[in-house]
Specification:
The structure is a single chain. The radius of gyration is 18 Å and the shape is globular. The protein has one domain: Rossmann fold, CATH 3.40.50.1820. By secondary structure, it is an alpha/beta fold. The protein has an eight-stranded mixed beta sheet, with helices on both faces. The chain contains ten helices and eight strands. The mean pLDDT is 94. Belongs to the 'GDXG' lipolytic enzyme family. Keywords: Hydrolase. This is Alpha/beta hydrolase fold-3 domain-containing protein.
Amino acid sequence: MPEPRPQFPPPSSISAEAQAVLAVSGGFALQPHPALDDIAGWERWVEASDGPLTKMLGGYQLSDDVMRRTEFEIDGVTTHVLHPVGVPDDAPVVVELHGGGLILCGGELSWKITAARAAERQAITWVPDYRMPPHHRFPVALDDCLAVYRRALAERDPSRIAVSGASAGGNLAAALMLRAKDDGLPLPAALILMTPELDLTESGDTFATLLGIDQLGLLAAVNELYADGQDLTHPYLSPLFGDVTGFPPTFLQSGTRDLYLSNTVRMHRKLLDAGVPVELRVMEAGLHGGFGGRTPEDRVINADMLAFLAEHLAD
């Protein structure tokens, strides 16, 4: 096992709030991964890995004067509907695909970790609780996301739909575009990929240079479990290797300390080469996921993302 990397002090170029986040952030190590065929071991691993976030958000409730939550089920997929107060019932829909390394943050966590973004949108957010390993492997999660996207197309014109995803959700959001294209479906008006996990082979430069500096670690074993024996370079698994021609206008976000920075900048180049309108935001000293949503830097990124949605989503 490689020696831990030195931690660099927070730079003076960022806000005091962001410096405080970096001052307590270290390299993040998940529990050792079980063998790929150890289902019970993976169940325990998921429970242990989800545990801290479940404890933190376990009592989280929506305020009735900010947003209400309902849900529907389609093809066995529970989808949470987050509807900000004051947003009309026929508002545009954002299909938000939650993060979690393609294996974590299911159940109640799926909507709780996306609620803050949903509350600020002039849109209704749908959060599919897509099925995940160890019991459901590729392509089940993508099939679930496609089913929910088809439902969105049945209820809204594509010009009034956006697809968004952070981390593993970014993987599924981009893979969904490829799958929808292959199935002859219209694509949405906008695509948002926040620190996206676009390359399950983890081949980019920053998987080496930022390992131990970002709070996120490598997920090779999880990726193999999710892929269920399929080649990790398949575009539905690693959308960075797909044909992005015809993608909708795309918003990309990363940070200079984000393990997935290589994923993001490589996708930016790929989209530019394909003639896709694309915006890229790279946060100075930003970790995977930014600074937790509570700093001036996070607020600037969120404002840019909201402006991007307002520009591309039809009223």
